Amino acid sequence: xxxxxxxxxxxxxxxxxxxxxxxxxxxxxxGRAYEPKIFPFMLGFILLVLSLGLIARELKEVRGxxxxxxxxxxxxxxxxNKILMTCVFAVLYALIFNKAGYVISTIIFLELELILFNGKxxxxxxxxxxxxxxxxxxxxxxxxxxxxxxxxxxxxx
Length: 157
Prior knowledge:
Elements: H1 5-23, H2 35-68, H3 78-100, H4 102-118, H5 123-144
Helix pairs in contact: 1-2, 3-4, 4-5
């Protein structure tokens, strides 16, 4: 199985769970009882159909590749290591989020992600993007929208 089929399968499972959950929504107390379920059900159904189409396309491409050459296992594809490292960085981000605060932990997470995808050679751009993005989002959410974000100990942000 190719790595590119996995997102399609995840979307199919998500669509299946979402569609099932929409069927279990409570009936409306006024008006037609089934009306609150129609739009969410349609979204879930569309997600199921699109994910099945994506699975079919990916399987067709994999079969085409197999006929030409044997594909490497999905864990040896170049993107697998990046996905794995992103998961590790996300766990690290979650662990330091409350202790280091939003801004510092987000800067560290973004810096690691940008080094992973953009390379060490562009460290100046990576650092600038991580700093500006983290501060911009902090100002928007904390100051403008009034959403509480964990503060960095010892700093005003």
